[in-house]
Each structure stands twice: as structure tokens, then as C-alpha cells.
Design brief:
- The complex is a heterodimer of chains A (872) and B (90).
- Chain A is mainly alpha-helical and 872 residues long.
- Among the domains of chain A are: 169 residues, P-loop containing nucleotide triphosphate hydrolases (Rossmann fold, 3-Layer(aba) Sandwich), CATH 3.40.50.300; 38 residues, no CATH class; 123 residues, no CATH class; 207 residues, Serine Threonine Protein Phosphatase 5, Tetratricopeptide repeat (Alpha Horseshoe), CATH 1.25.40; 58 residues, Winged helix-like DNA-binding domain superfamily/Winged helix DNA-binding domain (Arc Repressor Mutant, subunit A), CATH 1.10.10.
- Chain A has 45 helices and 8 strands.
- A 5-stranded parallel beta sheet of chain A has the order 2-3-4-1-5, with helices on both faces. Chain A has a 3-stranded antiparallel beta sheet with strand order 6-8-7.
- Chain A is globular, with a radius of gyration of 31 Å.
- The two termini of chain B are 28 Å apart.
- In chain B, strands 2-3-1-4 form a 4-stranded antiparallel beta sheet.
- Chain B is globular.
- Chain B is α+β, with helices and mostly antiparallel strands and 90 residues long.
- Chain B has a single domain, classed as ORF SCO4226, nickel-binding ferredoxin-like monomer (Alpha-Beta Plaits, 2-Layer Sandwich).
- Classes of the chains: A mainly alpha (872), B alpha+beta (90).
- At the A-B interface, helix 31 and helix 32 of A face strand 1, helix 2 and strand 4 of B.
């Protein structure tokens, strides 16, 4: 067993002084002072590989007073790193209870205890996490968690990362997410200037201009060449490193190769177990500046050097060395901490038995800590070597991989894993598992918009499971049928729901119970049965009690739909927000997409277009079926603002909606396309978009769609009177009662629709009021139409909106600025609610959003901020 | 990354002095844009300095609007554009 690694600041680059980094050191110093004053900071130090990020941070750590507690952790360059790797470096010295929590796989315990340890005791504290571009998913989640909370601690968190990685890399996505978090700071480590290179070359005979040009000022490259002395100018970092390796004695050269295979951290004991390596050889590598001593282990001076050495080893020998390292690691350590490394060496050595021994275990360990990316990778790695496993074991591995892929929003991979598993179960004659596999596919297919496949899977599940008699699996299959029929607004949903509930009560899978309750309830609610909502709530309670996150997320979604059906925009938005928050708290973002897309939709109708557009973006980046709704919302916002890129969204949305073939999506897309045509002056194309779907909405008695699509038919002159079953405000408009329609829309909180209703008024004052609303919303297209109407009436068209004279650097919406002003004047939420004609609950939402954006924790501080703002 | 032409109207005339102060104003805009992935390429200013036609690179129209809000700049219209070069066909 290896000793726990004691981490001390590693003082790299000691031999070559740090140049041109005064500004960065100064910035780190001032953030440390802020942390000492109880305003913790999370600093991301970015630069290209070899820019000298570690050297900078090392110098900063060395300059710290000795009484400042310092915790150092590093991410490892593995294809699937161990979950919470850097924290396992830090935990033993931070708080041993965290080590326990990690062993137990208690992820939320790990997060809260880590925060508690950073909060307790003397301030400031410094925690460094190196090389976050290699971080596992759980580590990135930890950083996200800490970013929201470190502000009220005395801790300075310093995270180094390579900024030359792709924008789609997890670290880049995290940085994007954290861009508006107030305590986060970015620090760039740029390449060295020619002057700095000249300073470094003072004692050598190298030409500084040429050296700078060859290295582009890359600090590591420069120092590698300086170490080499005047032996010609290598063309790449790898050449520079290898030129120096060739000058080592053969035994030391072999040692450095073994070390490169072992990894970024080299345990001398393992190195010795691989070859004829003694203390002398290791010392030679240290003396020549390839390796640095860091507590009981050796580390490469830079990953660039390790890469260069590793890639110079011929493949056959490399795989032999991996086998040797695997043997050494296996003998010398058995901790779960090493599973990820064991699995990696096993694969590199081509040792199938070892891969099958370690990769699934590494996957399980990652899955427990919700490092889903790493878990999915490890299962896939095991599956590459699964030829010799029994069919049952292979199917079980496939099912595990499918679960992780679903959580990662990699639904296509999940589907193919399930399909493969089902084939195996069918061959084995395991009909229960095969039937249940088909049942799992129902949701997976539906979520990527493949309704026809989803229906087939649902039928197949029932077909296989029904003859086997009542079972929990059959209860689930019925519940999925219920859900699928509900989505198509087919009354068969209720029959399936009853069957599912009867079985679920007896055989008790709470998931099937929750799903049947909420699906039946939703069907009832959207058809106007007030008891439906109560059923959805029972479904939600069942899910929460049983800890079924996915079902609970879905139930919030369904509650929002039920509220929407009675045009209660505020209650709908509240359910969607709750669902989204629920998913964010549990890091199950993929289940939150439906709620997020709903919330975008509700914000759109409420006239909060900036917020709606922002909410749409992550949904659009996924392949979840809700993408259709978010595409339509974004397209409608763009069309209303006269912004470009409307039709690519609407065309793709129509294509996707055709695949789903449910009115809830097809009608949505049709309404969006009708509006976009109408606003761009192509009113003759409107009816063609909606005619057919209007008939379908009539057949399904879907009141919102009858209303909205009917209204477009009415606008196009294809309808004279309101159709039966149309939702009220639209029906009033079609009946010519624009005044009642406008006031109902306003009452329900639909400002744009209220103004649109006023466009039908013959009075100048109503049109002017519509213009005001359009100006406030930025509805450029509708404003032009209102202007035309005013001119027809011979009235003067008001001038355009005045430009906002002040920028809003905190990113508050105009509504939030309004609320903040009132908070500043000492108004309570209830007072503000009265003034703005909104509920206290909504005011409360605005206030908490303001606090987050301003990075303050109380109304008093926010009021103070408002005063300062007003004075500027 | 798409290219956009953003038209703006300044009722009080645009007045950026040609000195250090002006440089600060412009570089401030550049820095704030960078955080949103938006790049200001250059602008054409009408003779009476009340209208500007600004060429931007950005991920989408919302980012262009967001950048305008953050910088306190007005937006009349955003048009997605591509380059047409008269000598391309020679």
C-alpha cells in the first residue's frame, strides 16, 4: 500500500526566475486580501500549454505567509480520470471526514463538508486545483457548487486550466456558465514578450529574437531550450525535450520512459518494480530537470515533456511498459483511488482480463459520485473487451452504460446500448429483462423525437410482458403506454393509466405509480377536469418519497402544463422554476430540459424575451425533444424583434415536429410559422401553415390550439366566428370584442397579446397604448403595424423608444431594475407587488434573482447597491 | 461565427474623442464584448454622427443585443451579412 501523498507547494521553475508575471502576482495578492476580509474568490488561471501557469501559482504559493493553510490538488491526464481526483489529494489535509464521504460515494456530503472545511477556522485559506482541463465531471460540478458559495468564506480558490482547448470541452462550458457569477475572476498567463525572453537569455549565447520567434514566447519551450544550451534550435517542444533525453545515460533514459508511462505522478516504488531502476537513475532525471520531487512522489516538470517522451516510445515497447506498470500498481496498491489508473494501464497493455476487472469497477465508483462522463467511458472501455464475457454479463454492462448515457444527454448512445442488451436478453430467453428493456426504450425514443419507434417499443414491451402475468415490469409498461397516449392527447391514456395503477398498487414499483398518476392527471387537466392537477400532485409526492428524481422532474413539468391549460401563467412558471431548481440542485440537467424549455415558453408569453432567449440556448444545444418548443420560442422572439435567423429554426422545428407527430409540437410550430409570415408581411402564407392543424386541434378539442390557430385562420379570413372550444381571450378577439380580449390577456399576464388585441381598436388612444407596449418589449415588427394603423386613422405616430442612457453592467432585466429601485426605497415585497400588479411570489423571484446577479446576500446590501448605482 | 451589420441611431450625436479617452471608450467595448464571444470588427459613421453601421462577429443575434445592452448602445436593426467582393469574379 502506498502512503497517502502529502502535498506541499511544488516550486517549479525555481532554476529559471519568473519573469513578466508581476501583474498576475499582484492580482492574486489582492484577491487573497479580499478573501482574508471574508469575500472569497474563485480564480481561473488560463494560458496555453507551457505558458507557465503552474510556475505562477507555485510562486504565489511560495510567497504566502507560513500561517496561511494551503491545499494543493491536481487533475490527471487520463482518458477517464478518477472521480474527484484533485479533491482526494486535498481531502486528507482539509478534513478527513471528506475522505470518508468519498469512500461512501456520498457526493452531496463531500460537497457540503468541503464547503464547511473551507468556511471553518482561520482566514484566508488557499486551495489550488491544477489542470482543470483534465478534470472529471464531479470535480467540475464541485467547482460550480463552490462558485456559488465561496463568496461568503475566507477562501481563495485558484484553478489552472489550458485556454487553448476547444470551446466544447467541459472546462470551457463551465467557464461560460460561471461568466456572470460575481466572485469568479479570470487571470490570463500570456506568452512571454521579446523583452522577457531577452532577459532570460542574458547568460547564454542564444539569439533572443530568434528564440522568441521560434518559441512564440512559450515559457516552457524557452526554458527547455535554455537548459539545452547552444545546441541548435529545435523546431518543436517535443524536439527540445527529446534532444535532452538523448543526452542522458541509457539507464536514465529508460527510467524517464518508464516514468512517462506511469503518469503525471510517478511513485518511485512502481518505477522500480517495472525495470532495473535504482535511486541513481531517478536522481539523474531529477538533476537534469525532467522530474521534480514532490513529497513521496516524483512529478514531471511539465506534461508537455511527459507527452514528448511517451510518444517517442515504440508502440510494442510502450504496451509492454504499461503491462509492467499495471503489475506494479496492482501489487503495490489496492485502493479504489487507483481504479481509473489501473483501467487505463490495462487497456494500454491490451490486457482484456485486467480491463474487465478494473474498468467496470471504476465505472461503478464514478457512477456513485455522479461523474457520469467517466462512468460511461469506463463501461464503454469494458465493453470493447467484453467478447469473453457471458451474454448476461455483457447485457448488464450495456444496461449500465445506457443509464449513464441517458444522464449525459447522449440519448442515441443510450438507445443503441439498450438495443444491443435486448438482443442478448432475447437470445438468453430472459423475457422479463427483454420486455423491460423495450419499456426503457419508450422514453429514450420519445425524448429524441422518434415517436413511431417509441410506440413500437411500448407495444413490444406489453406484448412480451403481458403473457408472463402481472409483474412490476408490466406495471411500468402500462404506465409508459399511459404517458405516450397522454402526449398524443388520446383518451386511451386513461385506460392504460387505470391498468398501470391497479398493478402498481399490488406490485409496487413507485416509478410506475408516479408515472401513471401524473400522466392520467395531465390528460384530465388539459381537458378541463379540475381533479387532474390533484392526481399529478399525488404522482409528484410518490416520486419524491421514493427519491425518483426523473419522475419528480417530469411531474413539475406536468403541473406546469396543467396550470398553462387554465392560462395561469404565473403558477405555470412557478412549477417550471421549481422543476428546474430541483434538477439543478441534483445535477440532473438532462431531466431539467423539459422544465427549462417550458420556463422559456412562459417567459416568452410574459414578455420577458431576454430571459426566454437565454433559457432556450441550453435546450437548443441538446437533442431533447423540448428543443422543438425552444426553437419556436427563439424564432418568434427574433421575428418580433425583426432579428435575423428566424426561418432556419422554424424549418428545423417543423422537420423535428413531423417526427414526433404530436399536436403539442406540430401546432406550436405552425403557430410560430404563421406569426413569422405575418410579421414579415406575407399574410397570404399564414392560412396554409395552420389550416390542417387547426382541424386536428378541433378533433382533439385542444382549446389553446383551437384558439391560437383559429385566430390565425380568422386573421386570414378563413373563419368568421370563434370556433367551438377556443380558449377565451382568442375567442373574444374573433368575436370582435377586442376590448375584453385585451383586458383578459393583460389579466393573465400576456402583455404582447393584449397589445395585439388593441390593434383591432378604432381608437387612437388604444393604438398609442399598444405602441407603448411594443416599444417596451422591443417588438419592432408589431410596432410598425401599429404605426401603419395610426397613419390610416390620420394620427401622428409616436417617435421610437428612447435609447437606454445607462448601461446595466450587472445584467439585470428592466423589470429587475424597476424592482431594485423600489427595494432601494425601502418598499416591502407586498408593496412592490401592489405597485406592479404582480403577485408577491413573483416579486420574491425577482428579488432573489437580483441578489444573485449583484452577488449580495441581503435586501439591505441590494438597496445599498441601488443607491450607489443611482449616484453614478 | 456569423457576421452581422448592426445599425444604430444616436439622437445626441456620437462623440468619441480622438485621444486616450476615446481609446479607453473603444477598448472598454472590446473587453465587454469579448466576454460574450462578440467581436466588433469596425463601424461606418454617418456624416452628422447620428447613425452608425457596425460590423460584428458573434454567435447569434441575442449575443449582439446583449453586448449592446452591456455597452449601453442602441440597436435599430441587426442584419446577418456575408461579404460580396466586386473583384471575386476576375
Amino acid at each position: 500500500m502506498l502512503e497517502a501523498t502529502a502535498f506541499e507547494p511544488h516550486l517549479n521553475f525555481a532554476a529559471v526566475g519568473l519573469v513578466e508575471r508581476e501583474a498576475q502576482l499582484g492580482a492574486l495578492g489582492s484577491w487573497l486580501a479580499e478573501a482574508a476580509a471574508g469575500e472569497g474568490r474563485l480564480v481561473f488561471v488560463g494560458g496555453e500549454a507551457g505558458a507557465g501557469k503552474s510556475a505562477l501559482v507555485g510562486e504565489f504559493c511560495r510567497s504566502l505567509p507560513s500561517n496561511v493553510p494551503l491545499y494543493l490538488g491536481a487533475c490527471e491526464p487520463l482518458s477517464a480520470p478518477r472521480p474527484l481526483g484533485p479533491l482526494s489529494d486535498i481531502a486528507p489535509s482539509l478534513d478527513s471526514v471528506i475522505v470518508e464521504r468519498m469512500r461512501e460515494g456520498d457526493r452531496s456530503g463531500v460537497f457540503t463538508d468541503c464547503l464547511a472545511a473551507l468556511t471553518a477556522g482561520p482566514v484566508p485559506k488557499v486551495m489550488v486545483i491544477e489542470d482543470a482541463h483534465w478534470a472529471d465531471e464531479a470535480t467540475l460540478d464541485l467547482l460550480q457548487y463552490l462558485s456559488r458559495r465561496v463568496g461568503s468564506t475566507g477562501a481563495l480558490l485558484v484553478v489552472t486550466y489550458r485556454d487553448d482547448v476547444d470551446r466544447t470541452e467541459p472546462i470551457s462550458i463551465l467557464l461560460g456558465d460561471l461568466a456572470s457569477v460575481p466572485v469568479v475572476r479570470r487571470l490570463a498567463v500570456p506568452p512571454l514578450s521579446p523583452a522577457a525572453v531577452a532577459e532570460l537569455t542574458i547568460d547564454s549565447d542564444l539569439d533572443p529574437v530568434k528564440l522568441h520567434a521560434e518559441t512564440n514566447g512559450n515559457a516552457f519551450f524557452v526554458t527547455e531550450i535554455l537548459r539545452q544550451g547552444s545546441h541548435g534550435m529545435p523546431v518543436s517542444v517535443a524536439d527540445a525535450v527529446l534532444a535532452r533525453v538523448r543526452r542522458l545515460r541509457p539507464a536514465a533514459r529508460e527510467t524517464i520512459e518508464v516514468a512517462a508511462v506511469i503518469g503525471a505522478k510517478v511513485e518511485p516504488a512502481i518505477a522500480r518494480s517495472v525495470g532495473e531502476i535504482g535511486a541513481d537513475e531517478l536522481d539523474e532525471c531529477v538533476a537534469n530537470g525532467f522530474l521534480l520531487s514532490e513529497g513521496p512522489v516524483l512529478v514531471f516538470r511539465h506534461e508537455l515533456a511527459r507527452r514528448a517522451v511517451l510518444e517517442s516510445i515504440p508502440p510494442g515497447r510502450r504496451s509492454q511498459l504499461h503491462a509492467g506498470v499495471l503489475r506494479g500498481l496492482r501489487e503495490l496498491c489496492g485502493e479504489p483511488d487507483y481504479l481509473a489508473r489501473l483501467a487505463e494501464h490495462a487497456e494500454e497493455a491490451g490486457d482484456a482480463d485486467a480491463v474487465l476487472e478494473f474498468a467496470p469497477a471504476a465505472g461503478d465508483s464514478a457512477s456513485r459520485l455522479r461523474s457520469h462522463r467517466e462512468a460511461a467511458f469506463q463501461y464503454a472501455r469494458a465493453l470493447r473487451f467484453a467478447g469473453r464475457l457471458s451474454a448476461a454479463d455483457r447485457a448488464a454492462l450495456l444496461a449500465k452504460r445506457a443509464d449513464e448515457c441517458l444522464l449525459l444527454d447522449q440519448r442515441d448512445d443510450a438507445i443503441s446500448a439498450w438495443r444491443e442488451a435486448i438482443v442478448l436478453w432475447e437470445e438468453l430467453g430472459d423475457r422479463v429483462r427483454a420486455g423491460d428493456g423495450w419499456r426503457q426504450l419508450v422514453c429514450a425514443y420519445w425524448n429524441v423525437g422518434r415517436r413511431a419507434d417509441s410506440e413500437l417499443a411500448a407495444d413490444r414491451a406489453v406484448e412480451i410482458l403481458e403473457p408472463l402475468g402481472p409483474s412490476p415490469e408490466l406495471a411500468w409498461a402500462y404506465a409508459e403506454q399511459c404517458c405516450l397516449n397522454m402526449c398524443a392527447q388520446d383518451p386511451a391514456a386513461l385506460t392504460w393509466g387505470e391498468k398501470a395503477l391497479a398493478l402498481a398498487e399490488e406490485y409496487g414499483p413507485p416509478g410506475a405509480m408516479a408515472r401513471a398518476l401524473q400522466s392520467s392527471g395531465t390528460f384530465m387537466a388539459i381537458n378541463g377536469d379540475p381533479e387532474g392537477e390533484e392526481m399529478i400532485r399525488r404522482g409528484l409526492d410518490t416520486a419524491l418519497e421514493a427519491g425518483l428524481d426523473k419522475e419528480a422532474a417530469l411531474a413539475y413539468n406536468n403541473l406546469a402544463c396543467a396550470a398553462w391549460a387554465r392560462l395561469d401563467l404565473e403558477a405555470a412558471a412557478e412549477s417550471a422554476s421549481k422543476g428546474l431548481q430541483f434538477c439543478q440542485d441534483r445535477d440532473i440537467h438532462s431531466y431539467g430540459l423539459g422544465n427549462q424549455s417550458n420556463l422559456a415558453d412562459f417567459s416568452f408569453w410574459a414578455g420577458e424575451w431576454d430571459r426566454a432567449a437565454e433559457l432556450c440556448k441550453p435546450v437548443l444545444a441538446s437533442n431533447h425533444v423540448s428543443r422543438i418548443a425552444s426553437m419556436v420560442v427563439l424564432a418568434r422572439i427574433r421575428a418580433r424583434r425583426r432579428d435575423p435567423e428566424v426561418w432556419p429554426l422554424l424549418d428545423e422545428a417543423r422537420q423535428l415536429a413531423t417526427g414526433v407527430a404530436e399536436l403539442q409540437y406540430t401546432a406550436l410550430v405552425a403557430a410560430g410559422r404563421a406569426e413569422a409570415h405575418w410579421l414579415s408581411g406575407n399574410s397570404h402564407l399564414v392560412a396554409g401553415e395552420v389550416r390542417e392543424l387547426f382541424e386536428q386541434a378541433m378533433a382533439l378539442k385542444s382549446s389553446w390550439h383551437i384558439g391560437e390557430l383559429g385566430w390565425w385562420m380568422w386573421r386570414s379570413g378563413e373563419l368568421d366566428d370563434p370556433p367551438e372550444g377556443a380558449i377565451r381571450p382568442f375567442a373574444l378577439q374573433m368575436a370582435g370584442d377586442w376590448e375584453a380580449a385585451a383586458s383578459e390577456w393583460a389579466e393573465h399576464g400576456f402583455p404582447y397579446e393584449a397589445a395585439m388585441a388593441r390593434l383591432d381598436s378604432p381608437h387612437v388612444t388604444d393604438l398609442r397604448s399598444a405602441v407603448e407596449t411594443f416599444d417596451r418589449l422591443g417588438a419592432v415588427a408589431a410596432r410598425e403595424l401599429a404605426g401603419q394603423r395610426l397613419r390610416q386613422l390620420g394620427a401622428v405616430v409616436p417617435r421610437g423608444p428612447r435609447r437606454s442612457t445607462r448601461s446595466n453592467p450587472d445584467g439585470l432585466t428592466s423589470r429587475e431594475v424597476e424592482v431594485l429601485g423600489m427595494v432601494g426605497r425601502g418598499l416591502t415585497d407586498a408593496d412592490i407587488a401592489k405597485v406592479l400588479f404582480i403577485s408577491t411570489r413573483t416579486v420574491n423571484h425577482h428579488v432573489s434573482s437580483i441578489l444573485t446577479k449583484l452577488g449580495v446576500s441581503s435586501r439591505t446590501e441590494a438597496a445599498e447597491a441601488a443607491r450607489i448605482d443611482a449616484e453614478v | 461565427m456569423a457576421r452581422y451589420m448592426v445599425e444604430r441611431t444616436f439622437s445626441d450625436c456620437l462623440d468619441i474623442p480622438v485621444n486616450g479617452e476615446g481609446e479607453k471608450v473603444c477598448l472598454g467595448v472590446v473587453d465587454r464584448n469579448a466576454e460574450l464571444g462578440v467581436t466588433w470588427i469596425h463601424s461606418y459613421v454617418s456624416e452628422d454622427k447620428t447613425k452608425t453601421f457596425c460590423v460584428y462577429d458573434g454567435p447569434d443575434p441575442e449575443a449582439i443585443r446583449h453586448a449592446a445592452t452591456v455597452n449601453g448602445l442602441p440597436v435599430d436593426s441587426i442584419t446577418r451579412v456575408t461579404v460580396l467582393d466586386p473583384y471575386f469574379y476576375q
